[in-house]
């Protein structure tokens, strides 16, 4: 059972309107947002930040952003966010081989060197203590410009918030996210954990 129960999707009409964004990304409004509605200023600010972070202003694709989110969520252990990120990656056109082999991104041929640099950045930035170093920086600048790096760190930081929110809340995971988690991550031991 979650720490705080989600409220009805129509609890706050402004949040409900903004949350239409998630119908595209996930196919449903996440329970995390429904819980944030306890303080509508938080739910609205979060959705607007999410939309800004996920906007594509450079060369970082929507699919890569969701794989960055998955690596970040995997590093922190948030099973709720792992399932959401892999579901969104699928919905935004990540290659089937990448979805099936996300755990092996460092060595699997479905991932380019540029993608590996971005995903290694996500892993290093998501660790405590932070592991971003000169090697990570050098590799990033081989493939990406400063705007791209800002977009990537926006995703990593957004999911840092979500990982803490959902793991602390024990947010109930939605059936669609469970399906994606089981399909792509189950072979590596993914399960709902506390997110029943």
Automatic annotation (TrEMBL):
Domain (Carboxymuconolactone decarboxylase-like) ranges: 40-120
Coiled-coil stretches: none
Domain of life from the UniProt record: Bacteria
InterPro entries: AhpD-like, CMD-like
SUPFAM superfamilies: AhpD-like (SSF69118)
The protein's name in its UniProt record: Carboxymuconolactone decarboxylase family protein
